[in-house]
Structures are given as structure tokens and as C-alpha cells.
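Below: protein 1.
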Amino acid sequence: MMLHAQHMPGQPGTPSLVFLHGFSGDCHEWQPVGEQFHGCSRLYIDLPGHGGSAAIPVDGFADVIRLLRATLISYNILKFWLVGYSLGGRVAMMAACQGIPGLCGLVVEGGHPGLQNEQARAERRLSDGRWAERFRHEPLTEVFHDWYQQPVFASLTAQQRQALTALRSQNNGETLAAMLEATSLAVQPDLREAL
């Protein structure tokens, strides 16, 4: 099985850029950035539970990395950079720490390397569990309205929050909840030393 992706070929012989979106995003998010690298081959991936990969279930990061590897092989991508935002950045860091073959380097924006103690993991597990339940049972417009009120999104304007809420509400709440639980910071190891 492989993840849904959009491939833009570039000059042969150069490493590919493999783009991984954040939670509730899809393969289109990185395309405006990726287009600036038109000489490079680019692969924009839909992570499990998102976009064209919404129906692909995973039990944790190991499954995500296995699917990522299978997707790269299916496109004959042997040398590549992983470029990830938030969840995509965490997937990229996990792949690097697991020694995914062909990796040339990482570009990570807003990707957390992992919580450093069990209390923080327990708190995050509870928080992510509450969010997952909301994604499963409430209208996504309401959930994302509240999601974008979190302190991490404080720099967004009201107009940006409104646009993101409308965009993200097109997702499937059940598959988002499953991916949130499978790849929560609560289950991610602290990657600082390995990186």
C-alpha cells in the first residue's frame, strides 16, 4: 500500500524534495513553496487520514514511515530531502531517526522533537484524546473554530482563522481523530539526542 501523492518531475540526478503537510492539511499545502524549486523533482504526499490518503489507517509512526517508504519506492525516489510542517515535520524527524534509506536531509517547520517527561506526555494524551472525540462527534466547523483558538495559533488574524476553519472542515473527522491519536506527541519519543 502507498500514500496518495502528486509528483512533479525535475532534472534527473538531483535529490527529490518530498513535502509532508501538517495535521488536517493535504498535498496541496506545500505546492506554492515547492514550485519555487522547479528544477527539482517534487513529491507532495497526503499523510494517512488526510486528502487522498484519508482511508488509510495507521496504528502509529512505524506504519506512517513504512507507508512513506513504500510511496518513495513506488515513485523510484532513491535520494531525497524531507520537508515537513508540524505533523509532517514530526514524521520527517521520525523517518530520519529510523534511518530511512536515501534521506539527504530535513527541512522542518514547526515540528516538535518530542516531549521530555512522562507528565507532559500524560497531559498531551488527555488533550489529544479530547480533541479526537470532538473530531469524531462534533461538526468540524465548530471543532476547527475552537482548534484555531489555541495559543499556538495566536498569530493568526480572525480572517485567517475563518479561512482555515472553512478549509479544514472539508476533512473527515473520524480519520483525523484516528491519525491524531496514532501520531500524538504523547506517543512520539523525544528525538533530540537521535537527531
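Below: protein 2.
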Amino acid sequence: MSTWQEVAEAKRTQREALIPEGYKVAAASLPAVSTESVVDFPSKTGILSEREVEITETDDVSTLLERLASSHYAAAEVLEAFMKRACIAHQLVNPLTEIHFEEARKLAAELDAELKSTGKVRGPLHGLPMSVKDQFQIKGSDATIGYISYANKPSTSDSVLVELLKKAGAVPFVKTNLPQTIMYSETSNHLWGTTLNPHNRTLHPGGSSGGEGALVAIKGSPLGVGTDVGGSVRIPAALCGVFGLRPCSHRFPYEGAVNTLLGQITVPSVLGPLSRSLSGLTEFSKAVLAQQPWLLDPQTPAMPWNDERFQNARTQKKLNIGVMWHDGHVKPMPPYERAIKEVLSALPDHDVIDFEPYKTAEAMSILTEAFVADGGKDISASIAPLNEPLGPCLSGIGRTEFTGFQVWQANKRKLEFQKAYLDHWNATAKQTKDGRPIDILIVPGMAYTAIAPGNDIYVAYTGLFNLVDYPAVVLPITKVDPAVDGKAPKRTEYLSEDDEKWSKKWDADKLVNAPVSIQIVGRRYEEEAVLGYAEQLCKALAAARAAA
């Protein structure tokens, strides 16, 4: 029987063999790992043609789809451009797990032939290359989720999401890295290795959808899909400077995705898109919901895309906006305050109030209980077949197993917290000028920017909204600038021991180029409204910057 090291090495060798030699940069020509951004490095290698650079640097997904539908670009050439860029990205930041170039080329050719013969696109995502987190099954390839014991067990069918993406005309071409167990906000495992942040490769890209965040950020994929149970779409979106959507539980179909902690339904994992454009999130949402996913996934509610809600949010004249500057337990690093203030300065016509943080420590206690109720049995069973060791950041994950009654009590606490948080949100009506509660809540993307691998984690800024099950969109705003952010005064008073610990990790010089993002949070099952409001904020910010 092979050792876990041998299985992992063989699997990585298989992956590397699938990367065409002509898509690789000579080792001597690769930049050294440093704080310098490598986001634009692929366009300077000479591997991509001028037209392929144009294709991969078309950030707006709606624009790319329009050009595909009009035959300005062929699906085959768009795919080839992103395959090249993804391969270069892989040499730089290691985002890829499974590679599906042969199958993707066949699908792209079919789409081109279909459009030429019928004059019609297959669906709203016609010809768009897409990446998916390793959890999503694609027939014929593994879905290891970072466990070595799951290797060499190819999927016999596509997950529901992949099936729907293909029907919409998308071309899945790669799967992306995630942490061992999935339950961590850094992306590293013994099977595929560690993924780095393309904005600064001394930092990590977040997790658990860190492969998606890194690949989308370096323009190796125009639109990707991750999952989120404690922030795993939003954290890499925030730390990699891309847009991301965390929808409410079951809004998009999870059926057929491989997962850890199966049976844990106190805080369900959800899937959501990541893109370099807000339009990517909207196009994804429309395309998936248009296909009635509730007919394929018994957990998905019959909730079609509500375009009226979306359009109303895009055009609403007066917004009531709450701002949660910190969560009451850990203050975010200084650039987050700068980012929020810049956004607010672009919104002079709206009513902005301070939002009092609500019992963050209690929320995180409930969230943690949900994840450790099995005493670590699920994870232990997954690493046992090959005696695979847990990564150093996960070594303390095993705890005492809960009784059935204790699980019920945890669920009860969650429901009580959800009701209390709803009441807290509605009480903002007492602060607004028109007596309505806030429409949206602006929150820092994280407590910290991207940081060096191997640190502790603090996910309350994202995990809170998994617990209460509210939709949230990540908007990239700026980057760490030592010339500006390095002037922030040193703190001497702290909200908690955790606050003091994280405050001391702040070093603008080491975090240079790290993206700084915010979250836009809305009411439960109002994804369309959150996307519409986010569009308003993006347009207002762009106009303010243009006028400056």
C-alpha cells in the first residue's frame, strides 16, 4: 500500500503533466517571491498573444459574454487565452488542482459550431470559461477536497451546479485549491500544497476558496465558484481584491458537491461566485436560478431570480445605510476605516448611521459549537486511511462529541440569536431620518488584510452572517499603502485580548499591496437587492474618483 506522501506526489505529477509545455514560463524567468504583485506578470511573458491579453484582461463578465454572443470572440479562443493564463498563474501562486483542458476544448468547439449553425447561444453563459472549487464534481476527475485518501476516486457524474453551468453555456476548465478539511481560512494541504496571494506572494489568499480567489485575481479565470460556511467565499474575495457573493442557505444548488462535516446543518455551507466584476456575480446568479435548480436539489427553495427587486435596489434614490466600524471584539486593521470612509464620501445623498455591533463573541461560540459537535470524527475518518497528518493549523480540531440533546441546544441558541439579530437590525428605524430600518449594512471585509501563512485566524466579520444567514457581497476598494496606512497611530487600548493580539500583527510595510475590501450585507434571501445596492455603491465610488 502506498504511503500518503507517495500518493500525493503521484497526484501532483499527474497534474503537472496536463499543463502544456508551451504554456509554461521558463523557471529562470519566473520572478522571485516578494511583496511585489504578479497579477500582470502573465501578460508580459510572451506566451499570450496581444488578443489573448485583451481577452483575459476584460474584467467585466457582461462585456465578455456580449462579445462571445456576437462572435467577436470565439469560445475556443477565449478558452485558450484563459487556459494559458491559468497555467502561468499556477507557476506563480499554485491555485489549480484538477485540469480539464481536453474536455473544455471539445465543449468550446461544440459551442462555436452551435452558434455558427443556429445563430443562437446555448445559454446566458455561452462560451465563458469557468473555474470551480475542488469540491464540485466533474465527471472523470477527483474531488479530493484536500484529503489524500480521496485521491484516485474519479467522480461518476457532475454536481448539479456544474451540470447547470454547462447547460447555460459555460465551459468549466479547471478546479481550484482549498485547505485540508475545507474548514480553514488559509489554503494549504498535503496533497496540492500552498496557494499564495498574487498581490503579494509573501501573504496567503485566504480560504477556504483560496484557489478561486487567487486564480480570479490573477485573471486566470473570469468567473469562479467557491463555497462559504464561515466566510470561505468572502475571505478570499476580500484578501485577493475581487468581488464575491455569499447567498443565503440553499439559494443555489449544493447537491453533488463533496463536503466535510456532512450532516452538520446548524450552519449550512453555501456556494457563491467570485469575479473581477460585480456583473460576474449577477450573471452567475441569473443563469443558475433561471434553470429552476430546485427541481434537481431538494434543499433549494423555488425562488426564481427577482428582477424587480434587483432593479429597485439599483435605482432606489435614498438608502438607509448602517456602518459597523468594528465587531465589538476585534477592531479591523487601519486601512479598513480608510476604505469605508472613502465609500461613504461618495454617498452624500444617503442616510448613514453607525450600527452597534451585536454580541459577536456569543455568535462565534454558537458557530464553533456547530463545527465541532462531532468531536472531530468526520475529519479523523477522512485522514485515517493513509495516516495523513492534520496540518499544523488544524491540530487542535478534535473535541468532545456532543450528545443529541447538546446539538438541539446549540440549534436553539442559533435560532434565538437569529431572532435577536433581526430585532437589532429592525431597531435601526429609531436612528434613521425616515423611520425605516437600514437597507444595507457596510462591514469591513475582515479584521485583517491578507497576512503571512501560518497565522491564527479570526473570522467573526464573515462568520456572523453565516450564523444569521444574511446575504453579503464583497467589494474591493483599495490596497494597503505604507505611505498612508503606516502613519496610523499605535493603539494602547483594546476591546479584548484578541483585539490586542491582532493589533500587533499590523505592519503596513509587510502587507504592501494587500487588497482592502468591504462587505455589503442585506436582509435574508434578498440577494438581488444586495447585488443592486452594491452596484449603486460601485457606480457612486467610480464617479467620485473620476471627479477627484
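The first helix runs from residue 4 to 17.
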